Amino acid sequence: MHHSTIGSRAAAASMIGLAAALIVVGGLLAGCTSGRSQSAASTDGARGGTAASAASIGDSTSSAPTTTAVATTTTVEETTTTTEAPTTTSSTTTTTTEPPTTTTTIVVQGAIVKVANATKVPGGASKLTKLMADFGFQMAEPTDAAGNEEFRDTTQIYCLPGSEAVAGSIGILLDGVPVNYMPTPAPITDATAGLGDASVLVMLGKDLAGKTPPRLKNG
Fold first, then answer.
1. N or C: lower Cβ tally within 10 Å for the chain?
2. How confident is the model at residue 124 (pLDDT cuts 50, 70, 90)?
3. How far apart (Å, rounded) are the C-alpha atoms in residues 8 and 54?
4. Mean pLDDT, residues 92-98 taken together
5. What is the DSSP letter of 11?
6. How far is CA 10 from the centre of its chain?
7. Which residues contact 162 (CB under 8 A, 6 or more apart)?
8. Is residue 154 over pLDDT 70?
9. Which residues contact residue 8 at a Cβ distance below 8 angstroms, ignoring those fewer than 6 apart?
10. What is the Cα–Cα distance from 142 to 157, expressed in whole angstroms?
11. Taking residues 26-55, what's their average pLDDT?
12. How far apart are CA 46 and CA 66, in angstroms?
């Protein structure tokens, strides 16, 4: 009877110890399960953060780049070209319109005079040459007019510089015939070379051809 009681007590103590052990094991298992849940939650949170970061990176990458337009200014320099007209040399007779200094005194010496016939009157230049020689002028052989003055309606006197006094005197004797400086080329046969030593040229026109000017009669 005494031994049965002791055995029952031992069995009861063993059952209590086993129950306590099971409680402890259950607590450990519950703690492990909770730890795993928390760890999974942490992992999911980390994954969520990574996904959010990736999404943020994706959003940042997909944003349209800002384009800055740089305007280029081009300066065009304009070149102005001045074109000068070429000088044209004309073969036509050039006449100086400025008359020499006139004189009121008759001067017959200091220049050689040539008469050119600018008409169709034959011998007109020869006749005037003789009249002027008789008056006292130094005369060259007569010639014919040429170029654009081959035929003239009025008589004209030309002279070279230095022969103005003689030319002006002839103008007076021929009743006011105008005097101008010699054109180049001279409007006679052989042009300027045809003048020879003459520095005064009388271009005899139709107005005096074949006539004897009154003032030359006194020669």
1. N
2. very high
3. 68
4. 52
5. H
6. 131
7. 111, 199
8. yes
9. none
10. 14
11. 45
12. 33
Over range 130-154, report the average pLDDT: 97
Structure confidence at residue 80 as a pLDDT band (50, 70, 90)? low
- Res 201: pLDDT: 98
Provide the β-strand partners of residue 117. 144, 204
Phi and psi dihedrals of 24, rounded to 5? -65, -45
Kindly state the DSSP code that residue 16 receives in the 8-state scheme.
H
Whether omega for the bond prior to residue 185 falls within 30 degrees of 0, making it cis, is yes
What distance lies between CA 148 and its chain's CA centroid? 40
| CA 103 – CA 171 distance, rounded (Å) | 9
Are 205 and 118 contacting, i.e. CB atoms less than 8 angstroms apart? yes
**What type of residue is 143?**
T
Whether residue 100 contacts residue 165, with contact meaning beta carbons closer than 8 Å, is answered with no
DSSP letter for each residue of 158-210: EE-TT-HHHHHHHHHHTTS--EEEPPBS-SBTTGGGGGTT--EEEEE-TTTTT
pTM above 0.70, yes or no: no
Mode of pairing for the β-strands spanning 138-139 and 112-117? parallel
Across 131-155, average pLDDT: 97
pLDDT given for residue 211 in this prediction: 93
Percent of the chain at pLDDT > 90 equals 49
- Rounded to whole angstroms, the Cα distance separating 187 from 191 reads 6
Q: Is the dihedral of CA 204, 207, 209, 215 positive or negative?
A: negative
Q: Are 143 and 129 in contact (CB under 8 A)?
A: no
